[in-house]
Amino acid sequence: MDNDFLQQMKRQAFMSALMRGANSSSNDDLLSDNDSDKSQADDSFFIASVREAEVRVDAMPLGVNLTRVADYIVNPDNHVVGLPGEFHNLLSSYLGLRDYYHALIIGEYALSFFPYDIDLLADSIQAAAGSAQYDKGGDLIQRAEKINKQYWDWRLFLMIADYYSSQLSSCSPEEFESIYGKGLSITEEYMKYLPWDDRAYNKMAEYYLIKNERQKARAILEKAIYDDIEGLDGTRQHIVAPQCCLTMIDKILSETIEYDRIVEIAEKGIQYTAQEQPSARMGYFKFRSAMAMDALITRDHYKNKQTIQEALREYQCAFDLNGDMAYGKTIQERYAALSQNSQNPVIDMPLIKRPLFSDNSQDSNK
Q: What predicted TM-score, i.e. pTM, was given to this entire model?
């Protein structure tokens, strides 16, 4: 989205909100879903394009009336139009706010203009699963199946695979095997057509774990993490598999004492996160690595002070990277126990919270 356009629309929305604030009886355009009947009937509500609707939703996600925006867009009398990418961006905003119901309404409207756009199909299938509208989702999947899968992207494969795994939670026992089979089949095709996408292998592992087939899940994850994978052109290469590393640690190794393997997988996960948009968090890999090193040290009765210091440094790095402090308390407790062990205490390495970036830009020039 053009930055100047975005800023202009944000300013317009802000000024409109100020003007409406001067008259409480007309304060209705961008308010919550509890708008009064009078405000709903206000003719001043107007959206010129799908792009403007996206700006409204993104600029004021807590105040914008998502129902009203969706209803206005899909009303053919309002002539709100947009390109497929603009509809996709708007749907992403609704999906990000977990408003799956209205996302599906907008998605079906967009597909009336662009019936075989793979992004819009993926968005709408995700919305159908999120709102448990499986009849509509099934129709959308049938439409997607008419497109040659060599033109599918990872989102369409993954959203359909996720759709079937979601449907397993609401289907009858008699339907379970059929739906499970459909999900397994689409995931196999995902691996076939996009063999270098680690999300395909991760999804296959998740399907195996649904039936507690842990060895199959482990084998497919290890294949993605360790093996060279053959592509459609016959060439083989090692793939970037951060999500597989995460699932391997959390779902396969977490209940074992394979601490050396956890450290190894965590290191690979950290290596794989060295990309522009990693699908797994580096801080979490550091945290799990530190925990595994800690367990090895405890098992060894704290004999080696150097390994204790290495584990403390790993904890410190995880603490620095853990911006939201989701597991900060655990780090603090384990750090205290490890550094103050009775066999080889380390008293000169206190745990501190350090900023990732210096506010003083001149420091880097010294």
A: 0.80
